[in-house]
Specification:
By secondary structure, the protein is an alpha+beta fold. It contains 13 helices and 23 strands. The structure holds pyridoxal-5'-phosphate. Pyridoxal-5'-phosphate (PLP) binds next to helix 5 and helix 6.
Length: 516
């Protein structure tokens, strides 16, 4: 296209901002002409011309306006609204500026001196000239670096955490008085409150989600339930931490394909993978939706298997009136900052109704020590710190409310995204999903991701390479899971966070609906 946007690098310090404009730094040409326009009335239209030879860069150094560009093959309207972005317009492009804000000042820089003969001020003449002139506009100048302004970020954690500022501040004051920084009163209270929230008897606050899961498997080993080489069924399309927790304990992950609609482990494919060595099923409530427990529990019962939940993405989600974290024998949670219940650092927890298991997990997380100076196991150090417990206690009170907001955003997307190229996520029941991620699918995923980026919408992929294709799991690299591999190439996570404004949701919908 004969126009493009460039980002100006600028210097910012306590004195203010400086934007240098010269060929050696930001601009694609040596400046020969420059002028600025101001005092335009809202209904004024400026421009209405094309240049035969001149290239120009337009910058809204104050206020904003719209610029319509047309080269007869393409046309586009761009809003110029930042002193740090320049619009390069190459020759033989019809340009009109309109919709000026009252404070708008447009700076125009050109690569040659003003020459009236060089202007085309009549559109019919422009069309004629354009059709006879077959100048290649490509590579007229070296391509300038342009990073689109982020209009819709994937998440806004600072904004979310800000809401809890006074409660966290209050907790921080308590921390100074308490003078205990790890596994103190705040962690103790959080454990009680989170256990109650999940509907279980025990909760152990640990260092992170990976530790939570790893410690569950380890504790079952210490209790003689699992031994080295035993097999654990797990979904093939999960985050690598689920699998690391298994292999770290010298247990063997046996991967099962997900259901193509829910992206959750396919219960119909579990039984065929069970051998004499199988000791557990790791269910991952991926993206925030609980797994189909009614189909999984009978299989576990039939073969006497433990059910371990990876609930890292499903805080507060239900399955038939029971919460994630209470649906199996034990569950591991992550409170990584971006999770639905997120700390301001690393944190995790194990929930269970099994008192003995909780005791062993607690000891293992504390060097293997059930009481001071007694070490029953070769444990690790993975304890929740008091500050994270303060943050989590403040946020837990409003977790259901925040999850409800997520549901409403998901419903907005589900209702309004209408594009035959996009497969929307399936959900079983409202309460069963807490929309940690809103994951769509399309055969043109990479193209869609780039297109969204171009329009300032941040998207992520959860996850682009499944564990069995990672270098870390060379021994699994030759395995083939067609559904998992297809999903990994087609999925894209859209921005969804509890405080997302309607304007941003509408922008996502509008842009995605126009994707061709
Ligand atoms: C499904 C799943 N399992 C495990 C983890 C590991 O949690 P953490 O990052 O707290 O170690 C995460 C998140 O990062 C996750 O999404």
């Amino acid at each position: 296209m004969p126009w493009e946007l460039i980002n100006f690098e600028y210097k910012k310090d306590q004195r203010g901002i400086l934007v240098p404009l010269e060929k050696s730094r930001n601009l694609p040409f040596e400046i020969k002409g420059s002028f600025y326009m101001l005092g335009m009335k809202k209904n004024t239209i400026r421009g209405k011309h094309a240049h035969k030879k001149i290239t120009q860069v337009l910058i809204a150094i104050n206020g904003k306006c719209k610029v319509s560009l047309n080269d007869l093959m393409d046309s586009e309207i761009i809003e110029l609204n930042s002193p740090y972005i320049g619009l390069i317009v190459y020759p033989l492009t019809w340009i009109e500026l309109f919709d000026f804000s009252p404070d708008c000042i447009i700076l125009v820089l050109t690569d040659d001196y003003y020459d009236e003969n060089e202007y085309i001020r009549n559109f019919e003449e422009f069309k004629k000239l354009k059709n006879t002139n077959k100048i290649s506009l490509k590579n007229l100048y070296k391509k300038c670096h342009y990073e689109p302004k982020i209009v819709v970020p994937f998440r806004e954690l600072a904004k979310l955490n800000q809401k809890y500022f006074s409660e966290i501040e209050e907790g921080f004051r308590r921390l100074f008085q308490e003078d205990v920084y790890i596994w103190g009163e705040e962690v103790h209270l959080f454990e009680k409150e989170f256990a109650q929230h999940c509907g279980v008897n025990h909760c152990v606050g640990v260092g992170n989600g990976l530790s939570a899961l790893t410690l569950i498997f380890r504790a079952y080993k210490e209790l003689g339930v699992f031994k080295d080489g035993d097999e654990v069924i797990a979904p093939a399309n999960t985050f690598i931490a689920s699998i690391l927790a298994i292999s770290e304990n010298n247990l063997t992950p046996v991967l099962v394909e997900p259901d193509i609609n829910t992206y959750l482990i396919d219960p119909n494919k579990i039984e065929e993978k069970i051998t004499k060595k199988t000791k557990a099923i790791l269910v991952v409530h991926l993206y925030g939706q609980t797994c189909e427990m009614d189909k999984i529990i009978p299989i576990a019962k039939k073969y006497n298997l433990k059910i371990i939940e990876d609930a890292a993405q499903a805080h507060g989600a239900y399955y038939k009136n029971k919460r994630a974290g209470s649906l199996g024998d034990a569950a591991g949670f992550s409170f990584y900052p971006s999770k639905n219940l997120g700390a301001m650092g690393d944190a995790g927890a194990v929930t269970t109704n099994d008192k003995k298991l909780a005791q062993v997990v607690r000891a293992l997380a504390n060097y293997g020590s059930p009481q001071p100076y007694i070490f029953n196991y070769k444990g690790i150090n993975s304890r929740m710190d008091e500050f994270q417990a303060i943050v989590l206690r403040a946020k837990l009170k409003r977790l259901d409310e925040e999850n409800e907001k997520r549901r409403k955003i998901a419903e907005f997307y589900l209702k309004n995204i209408k594009n035959p190229k996009i497969i929307l996520p399936y959900f079983r029941k409202r309460e069963d999903h807490v929309w940690h991620l809103f994951v769509i699918r399309t055969e043109q995923r990479d193209k869609l991701k780039k297109y969204m980026e171009k329009h300032g919408i941040q998207t992520l992929i959860h996850y682009p390479i499944p564990p069995h294709k990672q270098l870390a799991y060379k021994e699994l690299n030759q395995l083939h899971f067609p559904i998992t591999e297809q999903i990994s190439k087609e999925i894209l996570s859209l921005p969804l966070y509890s405080d997302m404004e309607l304007e941003k949701m509408k922008k996502v919908v509008d842009i995605i609906n126009k994707f061709k």
